[in-house]
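Bench log, entry 3. Co-assembly request; chain sequences pasted below exactly as received.
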Amino acid sequence: MVVVMSPQATETDITAVVERVATAGGEAFVSRGVSRTIIGLIGDIEQFHALNLRAMSGVSDVMRVSTPFKLVSRTNHPQRSTIRVGGAAIGPDTFTLVAGPCAVESREQTIEAAQMARSAGATLLRGGAFKPRTSPYAFQGLGEKGLAILAEAREVTGLPVVTEVMDAADVRLVASYADMLQVGTRNMQNFALLQAVGQAGKPVLLKRGMTATIEEWLMAAEYVAQRGNLDIVLCERGIRTFERSYRNTLDISAVPVVQGLSHLPVMIDPSHSGGRKDLVVPLSRAAIAVGADGILVDVHPHPEEALVDGPQALVDGDLRALAAMVRQLPPMLGRQGPG
Amino acid sequence: MVVVMSPQATETDITAVVERVATAGGEAFVSRGVSRTIIGLIGDIEQFHALNLRAMSGVSDVMRVSTPFKLVSRTNHPQRSTIRVGGAAIGPDTFTLVAGPCAVESREQTIEAAQMARSAGATLLRGGAFKPRTSPYAFQGLGEKGLAILAEAREVTGLPVVTEVMDAADVRLVASYADMLQVGTRNMQNFALLQAVGQAGKPVLLKRGMTATIEEWLMAAEYVAQRGNLDIVLCERGIRTFERSYRNTLDISAVPVVQGLSHLPVMIDPSHSGGRKDLVVPLSRAAIAVGADGILVDVHPHPEEALVDGPQALVDGDLRALAAMVRQLPPMLGRQGPG
Amino acid sequence: MVVVMSPQATETDITAVVERVATAGGEAFVSRGVSRTIIGLIGDIEQFHALNLRAMSGVSDVMRVSTPFKLVSRTNHPQRSTIRVGGAAIGPDTFTLVAGPCAVESREQTIEAAQMARSAGATLLRGGAFKPRTSPYAFQGLGEKGLAILAEAREVTGLPVVTEVMDAADVRLVASYADMLQVGTRNMQNFALLQAVGQAGKPVLLKRGMTATIEEWLMAAEYVAQRGNLDIVLCERGIRTFERSYRNTLDISAVPVVQGLSHLPVMIDPSHSGGRKDLVVPLSRAAIAVGADGILVDVHPHPEEALVDGPQALVDGDLRALAAMVRQLPPMLGRQGPG
Amino acid sequence: MVVVMSPQATETDITAVVERVATAGGEAFVSRGVSRTIIGLIGDIEQFHALNLRAMSGVSDVMRVSTPFKLVSRTNHPQRSTIRVGGAAIGPDTFTLVAGPCAVESREQTIEAAQMARSAGATLLRGGAFKPRTSPYAFQGLGEKGLAILAEAREVTGLPVVTEVMDAADVRLVASYADMLQVGTRNMQNFALLQAVGQAGKPVLLKRGMTATIEEWLMAAEYVAQRGNLDIVLCERGIRTFERSYRNTLDISAVPVVQGLSHLPVMIDPSHSGGRKDLVVPLSRAAIAVGADGILVDVHPHPEEALVDGPQALVDGDLRALAAMVRQLPPMLGRQGPG
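Structure output for the full assembly:
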């Protein structure tokens, strides 16, 4: 941490900062300049936060320089992690395709979509039984009935299942059906939920909040990790910007940056990023090329009838193109494809 | 709703849209232009969403024109509402001051802050027992012990209490101590929580998500209302923008716009908007002048020792200036002050 | 400036930074911590930028701590400035109303609007002869013919004229007709234009770029000031955010923050911020209350016929309400009204 | 265009809209619904804008549905264009590498960088003689002396030169040295400059404004095209968002979207997007994979000494990696590499 004193700060102000830091067991290094004095702090950063130095007389700014996340940081864990979900692996050595319907609508639709996913080379099945919807009048998902359908689709296809949980009270129920728990973009800072999934004994897929900074996203992962669960996969799914041509703006730079900061795998969701079917294939190609550890795509046997997000679901032709690309492109770039 | 067909759309495409709308009990009006055809839809908009028209052949865009929220809308409820919390009223006839410590840290600090709040003319006491924090290593609040301290502060000062609840599972507990339940910015789309507070039988203070559109915010209020609770107060607390000089950017235009769209009261939180003490008084003046129904401010007897958000808490001198302004300015602008 | 070394930085890296700083005539203060070393720099910051320290081995970040603008800064010029334009004053002692048509469309419309402006208490007439338009097919303004009409409106009403100039090549021409030169939001970083208006010998109205940070805005003012012209008035006119209910989001917090950083007057344009007539009066009230030095509003005798931005122009009733408010509210808040 | 009437609109209001549209030679189609009436307009959209329908009584919204750009649109020009600059081609059949120093600092540095660029497979040399800088105290470029150095670098390497022009008054001068004129991000809506480069008889590289929507960007291109110059290459260079880990956020989705809307080539600038050297190679891989028509990268023989943007310039090792990728990856994806 660095404390920047204002030009008007007095010697008494400076001494007061140094002494307060000392009471917290820290060390303070004073650098005097022509117009300002800067004080560098060494010690426990959380202790320093509690000192509330910013409110002291003569202090103009307090800047943090050390990394605020620990367990998910790559600093103490330089090797990138591989997370296993059933038979599927997500990590630096493979490129993982997760596919399935955005929402579980019926037994038939889900099983058909799951078979499409498997044929396309997916090693993990996605599907929503609990759906977060902006409007209370929109379809909210089938709930436990949907979970049972997903479990049946797993029986039929052999693919492990990842599905969203929206409330800490539902974690146990969802974990009893699913192989991996998804925390969605609107719940990225639902801290009770993060702590509950951290204790559930299942791998977690943590989507980035649509307006979360990378630091906030990694701090959310730290909440999960702190409860003893390091089986976390991060998923970039588009951020909110001023651009209105697509639903959200895929932040592709986040992939190499997060892989540099954290040992956790990072996937991309090209379906939700754009909300447009015509962007799924080009953004998936970009995801592979930039070094993402996998992608999550929506598939639907009959997108025209989809209750949720039909416009972005892939159908047969596109899905075959995607499947071919997922088989061929990663090896060209020095990485194994799925399965 | 308006369906815009692409220039390449065929007659078959147009007929298919019209027929699908008819199956949902709606009417479709076809307007043919030189280069495009536009189809206007009349009927139940939620039904139309389920039709997934955007995915049909020849459709280039689907635009919604009717208002998506009903219970909180001013269309069917032209008179602006007044919400009562204990003895306090929030609504178009008064200007309400809510004050208190950002976090309940101790019995002494809370009672001292509550007395500061009452002296300044506040009619409602705010204070956090459960604190949402970006970092799992930061102070998370005193929990139920904090709720008991708030209840004691109510005894001492006579002020009803509003406090945040972060998880649906805690709603019953928090409601047993508090007079009003706050849903914070990070939980504005925690739909399980919205539904739980909608059933708790207490008024709700719903803060705007820091990156929520006005429509999303009103839809979140609709979730609460749909469970039978229309005692909702909205609170604008700054949105996330590119500007880095303040923590968030107060969206003051939201006040008249939301008051035009909804009958619910709208308050402003000048403390969290800027995260800077020096902005609290000018932004409070702007809040009164723009027509907000009240403000929420942080006070702390000793901001230098605050565990959370000390830099934005008002101390004695500022608080007296604020109190004087809250007494004098609203009547000048044709509205009663607090109390 | 503060140089933050990475945890992997070696002693050689640290020495290299210190020596490079010395070659530029600066001093470096080394603070060694448990995991990182921080180096504080004292000296000429522009020299330090040229050193490109960020690219040196072992450097993790370089942070600037001193203020980058000098001539417009309040640090060396604590008293807030008053700018005079013809008989009108803009500064801390008055509240200035600038009004007029968004675009000069005809002699009749302009003179009628100018008379409306004067009746409402405006002391400065605004009007656009050169109009920056997103589309090349939209009305681009009357050019010099429009300037002549504005000069005639000045004759008739006695109000000095402020009008936009879009290209450095037009500065001399526009300055020969106008009393104050406006640099618009799209040209805030047109540096050739900034330098040209800095040499034109007329006061300058510098609108904030719709996505400019406060620092970039003040640096743009510094470009003007550097050419010898300190008669600059800043104007906040809404920033681009994710919110779609209004054209732009008025950043009202910018007013007290910029007034703290710079001695220049700061106005608000409530017409362009929202792009909605119904927001002009509430945002003008907020502007007065927050402490702005004036407002700029669009008026039009027949908004239904306006070629540009008709939806936001005030007509008679609203304008009278605004005029009454501009007379009454500033004195209540301890400031003189216009004129 | 679609006019949405408010629920309160009267028959007189509706008739007034229809008649006004007729006066402009347009046709209006009225669709009456249960709560609202919608009017579709067919005819000349610019004429309709001049009607200012939004300000008419009973009108709640006016929505544009046809495409606002014409000359650069793909609608009337379905085949994607190839632009030639000296011997270099930019378009759908090749992948073009443009490389060079961010700023021309000296004869030696520029020629050395140009030779690095050619060795890496670049077919076009970039370099700035006029530099737009946020601060007036920062290095502003060598001006005409820099142009002469670039011309000499062209002699030595055979590479045609693209360089930025910042002011309409300089277009003739810059065009006398350069093979292609760059309009930078801060000048994307400097309409005088756009018109001047449109008349200069040289191809234009039009960078996206850092906060411009795709529609505004294509309208800026339309300004150039309207002056008779269709030799335009678009360049995405990162947009401004809330994320602070990189200078700007590369909007990779813009590439397929713009290629769908316009026939013009679209390149990516991975150096300026992130402002970080470590992102150049991964973002360049993503650019190739997503289908961009080329990339623009900064190279510098001695980045530690660079006066501008040294932290993002590639040096030998990285540049060789990039060069190998640019040779190998496009053919794998069905496109020729440079040269």
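Chain D touches chain A through 37 residues (CB under 8 Å). Chain D is about 35% helix and 20% strand.
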